[in-house]
Specification:
The chain is mainly α. It has one domain: Sodium/glucose cotransporter, CATH 1.20.1730.10. The protein has a two-stranded antiparallel ribbon with strand order 1-2. A hairpin with a 2-residue loop joins strand 3 and strand 4. The protein starts with a helix and ends with a helix.
Length: 502
Amino acid sequence: MATGTIISLGLYFVVMLGIGLFAYRQTNTDVEGYMLGGRQLGPAVTALSAGASDMSGWMLMGLPGAMYVQGISAGWIAIGLVIGAFANYILVAPRLRVFTEVAKNSITLPDYFENRFADNTRILRIIASVVIVIFFTLYTSSGVVAGGKLFESSFNLSYEMGLYVTAGVVVTYTLIGGFMAVSMTDFVQGCIMFISLVMVPIVVVMELGGLGASVDSLKSIDPALFDPFMNAETGTAISVIGMISLASWGLGYFGQPHIIVRFMAIRSVKDVPAARNIGMSWMIVSIIGALMTGLFGLAYVTGNGNTIDPETVFIYLSQILFHPLIGGFLLAAILAAIMSTISSQLLVTSSSLTEDFYKAFLRRDASDKELVIAGRISVVVVAAVAIYLAYDRDSTILTLVSNAWAGFGAAFGPLVLFSLFKRSMTRRAALGGMVVGAITVLFWIYFPVEIQGQRLSEWMYEIVPGFILSSLTIMILSKSGTPRDGVEDTFDRFQQQLKEHG
């Protein structure tokens, strides 16, 4: 590996650790400070932190790879994600910020569910926490694996060394600075990703002789690359069901704990519009850059007579077209995407273990200092389990991880939305909607049934039936019962607070 690349990556790691130390000195020592940054995130940090923790390595590897082989038909998923993210800012962000504070200053999503529906049985908290801990531990392991493979393929280090370097840096700044460190590093990582996804496609197009020459080159490879209704990889038309499935990824935003926790932590409801404008601008430009990297990267790679793994097109271009110092910066963008998601998942899982298990069932009178220590121990434990799973690449259960977005979206998405808009929603409806959504997704993935020769999950993305059935369950069960005492009064206080915040 070139010296310039090593220098760039070394500076990146130093900056991340430095931010963790700075956040430690700035953050309150109580549990709200460690897990929500004292609800003091500014709009820019909120927006880029949510975006960076959302996008992960798929933004720089998965999405360019899909565009590389499928052509612009891969853009349907991007359209769905943009619409979903925008709707999340409009429908969820301001309401969740206010309601979590009204509902006994809830710090985690399971905490909010319990307080919102006055669930003294704690069943809502338990089930939601179990879902979060299991899926996010696997999610974290998947991110650690991505880091290990990146170090193995690009830096000539062992896979195992890559696991420890990736996890070690993330754990260190998360452990020291908590939520504020995670959010501030996400902000920097989001900036790195943004610059990289603007820079790479522009340079590729210039190398190909301009936009017109680039388009002509792609048309000579396969005209179907420019057909939005044709999968260029398979040469088959995309059905209406297929387009709905791709676009329905946007439904998942309403139920992703590591994203919506940023809305709980923003400084004020009045900051939400600014965060939305910043976040959506960042997302749209970054997604277009990722798509163009894959599309024009195909023209460059093919034109030079090479064959590569489509998901490594960003890595390939960064090493071929740029000086080692810049190439190191671009590789740091991939690490930024991986690390920003791992850190968010670590902290959400740690928060759930601390608030929803340790405090709720073991030490109800625990001091803030004790809870912060428990949170830091949880970060280390979850990271250790993730590394252990990552040692055996086959044990990461990639199928489950790839469907975790659908699982969270169907289990938590309708529940979050209805809880913020439906005054008479009942605890039984909340529990039923969450369980039905999760079970539907699992059934859709694993039940051996075929439609038109395709398995259910191949025929339609599982979040669609999961989201629909969860929503129907909530509506039906809310009509057949009455909310617990105080639930509607809490909702009325929330509405009043929301009006006061404008």
